[in-house]
């Protein structure tokens, strides 16, 4: 596995939603097309304070090359907008893309020695232990790599804005959303209404938990915006969209719209998960992301190594 920085064009699309009041953020949503991931720059309109949510580090499976095109584009946007990044927020340990959190933390401007902390939910240590042992990751490489572990419903500041960490288990047990004004950045919980919700078949995942997390989100006032972690737009829609209102989800979400019972959802979700292929970057993502985005330490020969499990069709091997 190799690392490169490049000035090649990024595979990204951009949305911007302006603040409508001092208590509402300005939001830049940046869509990374290779993994279908929405990254977010969320800023306080009264100051230059901002946070980054779920940034992407690019990975080419063919060449096993990590590159920083998407992260460098975020750095350039932060510079152009004059933002002071107060924190880098992760909703969970992603299984479908590598996080750029550690790279951004290293390359964002540091004021008087301050570097923006990387925040995630307090249950992350169980997830790190599970996958650290599964992939043989040295304990020292994933211990204390996150700077801030949020409690459920813990509040924090982004300049003058008040934000809250909201526990949304189901896709993973540690999963968080971030409520900022009348917006919730829900990660891999709810997707666009024509997709429904995220899968629940990872270790510690639960369709029952995700249904209840979904109902928690849809109990918010109808005008609230739910900003998703991914989009995979079907052909008839074509264009990715980062948010839908709570009311739109109540009326349209194919998995969670009003009238759907818990048992109906569980049956539907578990049947769908049984048909799904593993994410293409599953093993690479988990091994990097439990490290907070740091790359593996070089082996004696100088290579940075990841472990990939093998499967055998013959039981007589």
From TrEMBL:
Pfam families xref list: Lactamase_B
GO molecular function, one term: metal ion binding
Family matches, as CDD domains: POD-like_MBL-fold (cd07724)
Keyword Metal-binding attached: yes
Gene3D superfamilies for this protein: Ribonuclease Z/Hydroxyacylglutathione hydrolase-like (3.60.15.10)
InterPro entries: Metallo-B-lactamas, Mito_Persulfide_Diox, POD-like_MBL-fold, RibonucZ/Hydroxyglut_hydro
Source species: Aspergillus sclerotiicarbonarius (strain CBS 121057 / IBT 28362)
Keyword Metal-binding (UniProt): yes
GO annotation, biological process: glutathione metabolic process; hydrogen sulfide metabolic process
Protein name: Putative metallo-beta-lactamase domain protein
Keywords assigned: Metal-binding
Residue ranges of every copy of the Metallo-beta-lactamase domain listed in the record: 36-230
């Amino acid at each position: 596995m190799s690392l490169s920085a490049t000035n090649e064009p990024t595979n990204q699309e951009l949305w911007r939603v302006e603040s409508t009041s001092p208590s509402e953020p300005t939001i830049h949503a940046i869509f990374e097309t290779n993994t279908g991931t929405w990254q977010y720059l969320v800023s306080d309109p009264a100051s230059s304070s901002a946070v980054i949510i779920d940034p992407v580090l690019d990975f080419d499976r063919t060449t096993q090359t990590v590159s920083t095109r998407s992260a460098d584009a975020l750095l350039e946007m932060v510079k152009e907008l004059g933002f002071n990044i107060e924190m880098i927020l992760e909703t969970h340990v992603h299984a479908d893309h590598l996080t750029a959190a550690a790279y951004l933390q290293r390359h964002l401007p540091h004021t008087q020695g301050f570097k923006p902390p990387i925040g995630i939910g307090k249950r992350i240590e169980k997830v790190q232990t599970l996958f650290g042992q599964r992939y043989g990751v040295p304990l020292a490489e994933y211990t204390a790599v996150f700077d801030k572990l949020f409690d459920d419903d813990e509040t924090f500041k982004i300049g003058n804005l008040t934000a809250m960490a909201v526990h949304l288990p189901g896709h993973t047990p540690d999963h968080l959303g971030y409520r900022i004004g009348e917006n919730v950045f829900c990660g891999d919980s709810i997707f666009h209404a024509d997709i429904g919700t995220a899968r629940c078949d990872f270790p510690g995942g639960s369709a029952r938990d995700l249904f209840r997390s979904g109902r928690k989100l849809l109990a918010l006032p109808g005008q609230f915006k739910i900003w998703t972690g991914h989009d995979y737009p079907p052909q008839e829609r074509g264009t990715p969209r980062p948010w839908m209102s709570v009311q739109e989800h109540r009326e349209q979400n194919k998995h969670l719209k009003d009238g759907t019972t818990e048992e109906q959802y569980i049956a539907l979700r578990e049947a769908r998960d049984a048909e799904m292929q593993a994410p293409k970057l599953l093993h690479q993502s988990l091994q990097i992301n439990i490290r907070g985005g740091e790359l593996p330490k070089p082996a004696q020969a100088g290579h940075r190594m990841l472990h990939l499990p093998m499967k055998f069709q013959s039981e007589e091997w």
